[in-house]
Write a structure and sequence with these properties.
Pfam families: MarC. This is UPF0056 membrane protein. Belongs to the UPF0056 (MarC) family. By secondary structure, this protein is mainly alpha-helical. The protein is built from 8 helices and no strands. The protein starts with a helix and ends with a helix.
Length: 195
């Protein structure tokens, strides 16, 4: 996987556009001046967690005796499920954002940004090419930066694009993610057959 494809995949998995409504409804009761600070704090916490999983996730996998093909197949299935949710969103999706007060770590940093799928993705990158950790760290940093910028300007983007525009972009991203998920699944299955 190249730096470009790793970055795009991480952005798609983090799903900043899809998270805009969830972030805004979670922070609905928070003073608008504090919203951006909270978003910056939460995205930074998510970045730290994902960096830890990038550099130390392979030791967790080794300790649990999980092979690379198994991780690739599982990652492909998880990405496929995320893509399906992006293309066909559920009506009850807003339920996870019904929190009162100022959130800390949950639900914004984890699981909306650094969810199981994003953690799996960074571990998969590290496991595929452990000698290329700097490239994966750069990909993670770029994806995190783009996600943070989009979420910091969430109010503005919702006004510009509207709910329909955000939904259309998220569904398009879901279509792209579907093909990447299938490719990841097939690569893992091919590795399993050759092993």
């Amino acid at each position: 996987m190249t730096l470009y494809s790793a970055t795009i995949t991480l952005i798609l998995v983090m799903d900043p556009l899809g998270n805009i409504p969830l972030f805004l409804s979670t922070l609905n009761n928070v003073d608008p001046k504090r919203r951006q600070r909270i978003i910056l704090r939460e995205t930074f916490i998510a970045f730290i967690l994902l960096t830890l999983f990038l550099f130390f996730g392979q030791y967790i996998l080794e300790g649990m005796h999980i092979s690379e093909p198994a991780l690739q197949i599982a990652g492909g299935i998880i990405l496929f499920l995320i893509a399906i949710r992006m293309i066909f969103p559920q009506n009850g999706q807003e339920d996870k954002s019904s929190f009162s007060g100022e959130p800390l770590i949950v639900p914004l940093a984890v699981p909306l940004i650094a969810g199981p799928s994003t953690m799996t993705m960074v571990m998969l990158l590290a496991n595929q090419a452990p000698y290329d950790m700097f490239r994966w760290f750069i990909a993670l940093t770029i994806a995190w930066f783009i996600t943070t910028v989009i979420l910091v300007f969430a109010d503005f983007l919702r006004k510009i694009l509207g709910e329909r525009g955000l939904t259309a972009i998220e569904r398009l991203m879901g279509m792209i993610l579907t093909t990447m998920a299938v490719q990841m699944f097939l690569s893992g299955f091919e590795q399993f057959l050759h092993a």
